[in-house]
Amino acid sequence: MSAHRSGRPSRSTVNADHSSHGWDAAALRRFRRQLSAWYARHGRDLPWRRTRDPYAIGLSQIMLQQTTVVAVQPYFARFQAQFPTVADLAAADEQEVLRAWEGLGYYSRARNLLRTARQIVDEYAGEFPVDPAVLQTLPGIGRYTANAIASFAHDRRAPVVEANTLRLYSRLLGYRDDPRSRDGQEVLWQFAESILPRKNPGLFNQALIELGGTVCTPRTPACDDCPVVMQCAAFRDGLQAEIPQAARRPELTDLIDVCAVIQHKGNYLLAKRRPEERWAGLWDFPSLTVSESTGTRTSKTPPAESLTVWSGELADHLRAEFGLVVELSGPVTRLRHSITRYRVQLIGFAGDVSADGVAVGRNSKTSSAKR
Ligand code: SF4
Description:
With 371 residues, the protein is of the alpha+beta class. The protein folds into two domains: 228 residues, Hypothetical protein, domain 2 (Endonuclease III, domain 1), CATH 1.10.340.30; 115 residues, Nucleoside Triphosphate Pyrophosphohydrolase (Alpha-Beta Complex). 42% of the residues lie in helices and 16% in strands. The N terminus is likely disordered. The site of iron/sulfur cluster (SF4) has 15 residues, from helix 10 and helix 13.
């Protein structure tokens, strides 16, 4: 153990030698050996680890952004069954792809994936590029995803830094500054590269991600079960709870949306969100955002006068957008949910179409789905 044991090191001391991380060749060999042995025994058998197909690997890594392994698994299986190859995906309609992605959130990932598939078919004859620098030019593929595809599929010696390894490296190094800052990123990527072996770098990257995801967890790292505990600066200094520095939470935006639930001959009217709208391309009840605020939380129950004004605005919207003259009553339902950086309060009004038949416009359709 080091001299730091008797007291916490100063910030400048802790951050002094990250580029070489203070490990000699023997320590580096020991780290690699212990991690690899641990992964061989404890690595989870995940579907995307059973393949070298860059399409399947890329798909899994994109799905795993901001989403847990448990949540991704059924989506990955369904998506693969529906679009087994990059060519199948490239030929798909955007609506089909969004439908298969429904519930995973962050829908720009699905749109970018489709654009990437089409680009690969059009410009690379359906073959994923091997070079991570080229992969990074594709829509939605950043440095991590490009390197993950290149190393997992082709055993390219390409380092990885994502949420799990960011935490793991920060703790191993005892890095107390913000690991998401430009300096922090430089330190971590350099560290990731320095520890990567020449042999089986893909497997080694998987092991690092697995250790970060299952042992070196955010709140209660299982240091007693950690194969590299003796080389961990955060453990040595008792700083696991402080490292990594917490990310600044994005400011939340409160939305109040009103929607019209219009039933006609057993069908419900749905509208497709326009390209310029939030959640573009998805289908929902015709709706309108009547309040949007950041920093100040909207009151829990809007006053009755506001509801009257909003239902009038919604009726005007239905007339202007869909040519529908609708009598609205209610509200019949109120829902609250949070999605990405939005806290949404959705207020539903029931609608009766006064004209004969529903005029379904360019951007709308009817659905017989019972709600
Ligand atoms: S010893 Fe603890 S804090 Fe350090 S890498 Fe292992 S699990 Fe993480």
